[in-house]
Amino acid sequence: MKMRRQAVRNTENLTSAHTFATSATLQRLYLRSVSCSIVSYQLLLELSSVSLAANNRQLITNDMSAVSIYAEASPNPESMKFVLNSNLLADGVSVDYPTLDAAANSPLAQELFGFDYVGRVFIAANFVTITKTQPELAWTQLIPELRQFLKSYVEAGGPIFLVDPAAEQKAAQAATAGDPTQQEGQIAQKVIDLLDNYVRPAVEQDGGNITFKSYHEGIVTVNLQGSCSGCPSATVTLKSGIENLLKRMVPEVQSVVAEGILA
Fold first, then answer.
1. Domain termination site, one of 65, 82, 112
2. What is the pTM of this model?
3. Which one, out of 48, 120, 238, 261, has a CA that is 20 to 30 A from the CA of 133?
4. Hey, how many other C-beta atoms are within 10 angstroms of the C-beta on 13?
5. Lowest-pLDDT range of 64-68, 186-190, 215-219
6. Are strands 219-226 and 255-259 parallel, antiparallel or unpaired?
7. pLDDT at position 140 over 90
8. Total structural domains in the chain?
């Protein structure tokens, strides 16, 4: 009888030990499963982060490389202004190429002169003004071709200039400034400030530019560029607008004459 009871207790002990061992094993397996799930989740998050970062980099690259261009009419019916969403030049700097030979410093302008109807190219901060030589050609025919060319050229990273036009422009101004007296120098600076702050912004909106060339004995000489050259209203604007403004603000100014106005 005692032996039977001992056998029963031994069996119960073995069952309890097996149950405990089984429970411990299941617990270890569960913890291992949870641990694996956590690792898998962390790995998924890392992969998602990498994918998101890659997508973000791709979006940034696409945004930086995408160029949008729209055409804007100017007072000169033979000139069209193409405005970009990126800068080609620093603010206040512009270049005017009336011929292919004059455009030696600009590969972009040289390419534009490759179109047989392009007769003048003007480049400013964020726009290009193109003047055509064939009045019979409607801009509605030319705009899509020119816009697509400019977009492809800029997006491909094509060179705009070989030498910084800002330095070239300063050298040209120094060469034509002459040797003014101190008084003339002060008057010239007042004229330059007025042109830069009041006249140039309005002229640029029309796809052109005005630059100061000289002041001597009451006569101000300026250069008209881009769409202003050859514009039917250029002379009226010069005399009725610019000259009147300078005379009113700078009493020493007697007259304003312009270079670059084509008949």
1. 65
2. 0.66
3. 238
4. 10
5. 64-68
6. parallel
7. yes
8. 3
